[in-house]
Design a protein that fits this description.
The chain has two helices and ten strands; from the N terminus they run ααββββββββββ. With 225 residues, it is mainly beta. The longest helix has 19 residues, at 2-20. The chain is elongated and about 65 Å long.
Length: 225
């Protein structure tokens, strides 16, 4: 598990290194020739702003059940915390700063605790998650986002539980999960970021346990540097 976490963090940092090597032409100044003006205009679409940030918030989670017994799942409350890199391309107008255009990308690395209530007690699922969100900015500070989520279930509790006459060893649930998310966020000029996201997992918790942690709402507050 330590190797997986170290690899995820290393991948996140290496992405920042690659992006940091990109030369950004901010397009400032008054070109004196037609060729210079064309060059400056062309650079507007490629201008890139990169920010790093931290985020934390609350999760509201539920699960689906395809087993013959009924665990009586209902919404529970958990949390998430982590780091992100925000890439924002383009300029909204020729005089705008870089990072005010239409498109963006936001990879994240998060620790997420998902809690689900059931007839046998609360179930807690702890994930390392790597969402990669494609962002569309209808306004320079407001974005809608969609993208895949890659996660690893590192621990689950309780160790076992009885629901509807069946004994389930919840503690044995570990492994990779694949999902997707969709949401929106607003980035204030002084650094504050607020957002909400709906995500779902497509992977069952076990080969013989047809439960999916596939209804999650995340409310987030963060800070961009």
């Amino acid at each position: 598990m330590k190797k997986i976490l170290i690899f995820a963090i290393g991948l996140f940092l290496s992405m920042g290194t690659v992006v940091a090597q990109v030369k950004v032409n901010r397009g400032y100044g008054n070109p004196s020739s037609e060729a210079a003006r064309k060059s400056s205009t062309k650079s507007h679409g490629a201008a890139l702003a990169v920010k790093y940030g931290v985020k934390a918030g609350v999760n509201f989670s539920n699960m689906s059940n395809d087993m013959t017994f009924d665990p009586s799942f209902s919404i529970g409350t958990g949390f998430h915390v982590g780091a992100l890199m925000n890439l924002h391309w383009g300029q909204r107008t020729a005089s705008s700063l870089p990072g005010t255009g239409l498109w963006g990308l936001q990879p994240e690395i998060l620790f997420a605790n998902h809690a689900i209530k059931s007839g046998g007690g609360d179930i807690k699922l702890n994930y390392i998650k790597v969402p990669v969100m494609l962002k569309v900015y209808p306004l320079s500070a407001l974005s809608v986002e969609v993208g895949p989520e890659f996660s690893y279930l590192i621990s689950s509790s309780p160790e076992s539980m009885k629901v509807d006459g069946a004994t389930v060893k919840v503690g044995d649930c570990k492994g990779f999960n694949f999902g997707a998310g969709v949401g929106a966020s607003y980035e204030f000029g002084f650094g504050l970021m607020v957002g909400a996201r709906y995500s779902m997992n497509f992977t069952e918790l076990g080969k013989n346990l047809k439960w999916k942690n596939n209804n999650n709402v995340h409310v987030t507050v963060g800070w961009l540097f």
